[in-house]
């Protein structure tokens, strides 16, 4: 019974989601995926794949922002560190 | 009421047909009237109200075929008695065209056609029932019959050269064509400069004048009275067929310019607007009014008669299916360093209508048929497919197709082809290394790889991509296509590669190794501070010791290292942390769009299937909201309450912050609702039988 299988898996997944148990959900899906009819397997696979791609693009954007800002900050901190070292205050309080 | 309305419509059409006949008699003084009502700029919208014949005939024809009238087919002026006529629905761009054929399979004259229309919907005394063209016995050398292909019929919706134009203007008489070959002028223009008889030239002029008159009346904004006068003068003064050809071309170019403007008016989805544009637009298909119980008596309208210009056929050659660039789409998500959105926002190559497979082709392929059905279903027009299939099978017992139905299907056919191309692109890009990497490394797809392995996973995605693409809302399809394009594009950008090299160099200087980075290993609070946008705050108010600065550099170095890590989970964690919403990835069921879609999905279902859905969460929410169990309420109350947003909201709210769970649960929900819907339909059919 395709519908019953779907409902059963949905209910279990929802329970894992409630508990935030990602691994449990992954295991459940991995174990029971083949129980689903092939067209359902295919649809789930495509939908999850497209969702993953979308998600990845969003993450790439965020990561790129982190990289740009992080490198700029890193360089600024290095300059600051050199200035402190130049003042001979390495290891001590800069004061103020 | 409906009968009366039908009578009124029949009368209206009969009057109009007579008027058309009179007009033809008055204007076409010489030769046979090959032209009926040439469709040049579009249909007369008022004709949409006209009823259609009951027996619309077999539609197993190639919709692209637009058969020009033959000149000497029907000399039996008005003589219907004892003759066997055939009918066929020719699916032409811009709308279906109903045509009648004589015993030889040749299209009847406009006069005869008008007579036939006068009797449409009733038996004609002394005339056998009009049969589908496919039932006509085929004799060698005769005209159309059975289900000829475009080549067989000698028709095409493309005017590729002068010969085609000649054919469209003057018909497709094999004898004339043969003669024209013998007389082909030195210019090489096959047949165009052949010395036509005066009747043929006058006929073409009359047709063009008539077209001009119609278009001018229907579209005063497109053709001013001054322009009309000028066109009339030029047409009247035309000395030879070549002049007419030139005028037609000029008029077509005028039309194209007008369409450029018209096509921006996406709100116009009327028959007239569609035919005028002849293009696929983004708007939803014209909704079909609900059918009364027991089906509607046949009453649909005949399509406007077509003339030597072949309906709108000759005008579609250069037209493309325009589609605006991605609306909204990924703007928020597309990385800023991608060199602008323009490159990504260029959608697939424009589709010319002639590239789109005819409905007959779609329906002869079970996979295409199923996928087309899904698209039609998405657009809320599934009943059209059922009607079409029944009609194509020769079953005329149910509700008849109407011209608007075929028009809607034609529009969906174009959309189907457009989506097929996107599906192909998505599949093709799946071969890219980046996509395979996603398949194997994305946390949300781990189950897939663990469950069936990477090869089978790829196979499944390839096999079912088109099916899903046909079910995605436009915006979701845009997002999917562009996300994939964006990712491939990003990874190939020099900046993408350079910044990674730069980070690697920095980490080397700090003696950090990318492979050894562990998230939250050092100081989670501090890392979060950096990631939550306080990077430069840190510089403005630095910790004023070298040791403290070294710590900061170390933290930032690790975060940067994580962004180029081979550990995709680590990369994902950093990104999600920076987004401020850990582990929320992809579409979640709690987003406004999904909540809305969810409700829409539910609204598609009847109470019966709702009850069968039996979602435990729904029932819990129901109880929480109303203080009663679902089963305790009357069906009316249950149906009303099922669509109550307060029931849906708690359910969707609970879905927040669950990362890929949201996408997975939404996918499951969609499949369950689909299944419930199918079951209900099957059950309904069973009951009917």
SSE order and pairing:
The complex is a heterodimer of chains A (96) and B (689).
Chain A: H1 2-19, H2 22-32, H3 38-86
Chain B: H1 2-27, E1 86-92, E2 95-101, H2 110-118, E3 131-132, H3 150-153, H4 162-170, H5 174-182, H6 198-218, H7 225-237, H8 241-262, H9 271-277, E4 320-321, H10 342-345, E5 351-352, H11 359-364, H12 366-378, H13 382-392, H14 403-429, H15 433-441, H16 446-452, H17 454-469, H18 474-492, H19 494-509, H20 524-540, H21 546-563, H22 568-579, H23 592-604, H24 607-613, H25 616-626, H26 635-642, H27 645-653, H28 660-688
Parallel strand pairs in B: 1-3
Antiparallel strand pairs in B: 1-2, 4-5
Average of pLDDT of chain B: 58
Spatially, the strands of the biggest sheet of chain B line up as 2-1-3
Count of individual helical segments of chain A: 3
Helix content of chain A: over 70%
Number of strands of chain B: 5
Give the biggest sheet of chain A.
Answer: none
Q: What helical percentage do the residues of chain B reach?
A: 40-55%
Oligomeric state of the chains in view: heterodimer
Sheet having the most strands of chain B: 3 strands, mixed
What percent of residues of chain B are in strands?
under 5%
Classification by helices and strands of chain A = mainly alpha
CA gyration radius of chain A, whole angstroms:
25 Å
Q: Strand tally of chain A, please?
A: 0
Give keywords.
heterodimer; A: 96 residues; B: 689 residues; mainly alpha; 3-stranded mixed β-sheet; two-stranded antiparallel sheet; 28 helices; 54% helix; 3% strand; elongated; disordered N terminus
General description of the model:
- The complex is a heterodimer of chains A (96) and B (689).
- Chain A has 96 residues and is mostly helical.
- Chain A has three helices and no strands.
- Chain A has helices at 2-19, 22-32, 38-86.
- Chain A starts with a helix and ends in a 10-residue tail after the last helix.
- Chain B has 689 residues and is mostly helical.
- Chain B has 28 helices and five strands.
- The radius of gyration of chain B is 32 Å and the shape is elongated.
- The N terminus and C terminus of chain B are likely disordered.
- Chains A and B meet through helix 1, helix 2 and helix 3 of A and helix 15, helix 16, helix 17, helix 18 and helix 19 of B.
């Amino acid at each position: 019974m395709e519908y019953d299988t779907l409902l059963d898996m949905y209910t279990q997944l929802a329970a894992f989601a409630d508990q935030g148990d990602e691994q449990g959900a992954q295991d459940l899906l991995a174990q029971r995926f083949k129980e689903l009819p092939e067209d359902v397997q295919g649809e789930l696979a495509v939908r999850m794949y497209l969702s993953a791609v979308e998600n990845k693009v969003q993450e790439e954007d965020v990561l790129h922002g982190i990289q740009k800002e992080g490198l700029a900050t890193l360089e600024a901190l290095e300059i600051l560190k050199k200035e402190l070292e130049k003042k001979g205050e390495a290891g001590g309080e800069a004061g103020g | 009421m409906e009968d009366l309305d039908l009578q009124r419509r029949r009368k209206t059409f009969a009057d109009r047909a007579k008027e058309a006949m009179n007009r033809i008699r008055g204007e076409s003084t010489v030769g046979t009237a090959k032209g009926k009502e040439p469709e040049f700029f579009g249909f007369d919208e008022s004709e949409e109200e006209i009823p259609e014949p009951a027996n619309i005939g077999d539609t197993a024809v190639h919709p692209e075929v637009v058969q020009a009238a033959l000149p000497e087919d029907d000399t039996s002026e008005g003589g219907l008695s004892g003759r066997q006529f055939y009918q066929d629905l020719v699916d032409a761009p811009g709308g279906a065209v109903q045509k009648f054929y004589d015993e030889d399979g040749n299209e009847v004259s406009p006069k005869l056609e008008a007579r036939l229309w006068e009797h449409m919907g009733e038996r004609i005394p002394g005339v056998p029932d009009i049969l589908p063209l496919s039932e006509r016995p085929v004799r060698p050398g005769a005209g159309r019959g059975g289900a000829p292909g475009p080549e067989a019929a000698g028709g095409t919706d493309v005017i590729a050269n002068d010969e085609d134009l000649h054919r469209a203007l003057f018909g497709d008489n094999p004898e004339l064509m043969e003669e024209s070959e013998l007389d082909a002028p030195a210019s090489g223009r096959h047949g165009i400069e052949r010395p036509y008889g005066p009747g043929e030239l006058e006929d073409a002029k009359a047709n063009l004048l008539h077209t001009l008159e119609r278009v001018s009346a229907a579209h005063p904004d497109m053709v001013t009275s001054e322009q009309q006068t000028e066109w009339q003068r030029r047409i009247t003064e035309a000395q030879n067929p070549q002049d007419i050809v030139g005028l037609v071309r000029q008029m077509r170019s005028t039309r194209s310019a007008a369409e450029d403007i018209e096509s921006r008016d996406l709100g116009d989805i009327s028959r007239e607007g569609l035919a005028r544009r002849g293009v696929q637009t983004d708007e939803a298909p014209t909704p079909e009014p609900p059918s009364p119980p027991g089906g509607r008596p046949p009453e649909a309208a005949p399509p406007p008669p077509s003339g030597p210009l072949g309906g709108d056929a000759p005008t579609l050659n250069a037209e493309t299916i325009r589609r605006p660039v991605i609306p909204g789409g990924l703007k928020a998500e597309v990385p800023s360093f991608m060199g602008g959105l323009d490159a990504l926002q260029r959608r697939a190559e424009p589709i010319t209508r002639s590239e789109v497979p005819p409905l007959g082709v779609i329906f002869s392929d079970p996979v295409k048929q199923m996928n087309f059905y899904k698209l039609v279903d998405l657009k809320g027009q599934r009943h059209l497919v059922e009607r079409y299939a029944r009609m194509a099978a020769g079953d005329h017992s149910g509700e008849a197709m109407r011209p608007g139905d075929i028009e809607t299907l034609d529009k969906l056919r174009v959309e189907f082809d457009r989506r097929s191309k996107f599906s192909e692109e998505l599949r093709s890009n799946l071969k890219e290394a980046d996509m395979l990497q996603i398949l194997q490394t994305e946390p949300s797809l781990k189950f897939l790889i663990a469950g069936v392995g990477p090869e089978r996973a790829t196979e499944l995605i390839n096999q079912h991509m088109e099916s899903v693409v046909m079910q995605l809302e436009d915006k979701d399809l845009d997002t999917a296509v562009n996300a994939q394009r964006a990712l491939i594009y990003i990874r190939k950008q020099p900046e993408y590669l350079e910044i990674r090299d730069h980070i690697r160099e920095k980490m080397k200087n700090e003696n950090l190794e990318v492979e050894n980075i562990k998230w939250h290993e050092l100081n989670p609070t501090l890392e979060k501070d950096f990631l939550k946008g306080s990077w430069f705050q840190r510089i403005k108010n630095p910790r004023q010791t070298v040791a403290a600065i070294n710590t900061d550099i170390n933290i930032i170095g690790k975060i940067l290292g994580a962004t180029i890590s081979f550990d995709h989970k680590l990369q994902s964690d950093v990104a999600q942390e920076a987004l401020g919403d850990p582990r929320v990835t992809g579409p979640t069921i709690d987003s406004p769009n999904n909540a809305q879609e969810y409700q829409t999905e539910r609204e598609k279902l009847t109470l019966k299937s709702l009850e069968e859905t039996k979602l435990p969460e729904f029932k819990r929410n129901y109880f929480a909201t109303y203080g009663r169990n679902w089963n305790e309420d009357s069906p009316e109350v249950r149906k009303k309450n099922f669509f109550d947003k307060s029931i849906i909201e708690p359910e969707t709210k609970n879905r927040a912050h669950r990362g890929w769970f949201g996408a997975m649960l939404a996918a499951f929900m969609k499949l369950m609702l689909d299944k419930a819907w199918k079951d209900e339909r099957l059950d309904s059919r069973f009951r009917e039988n």
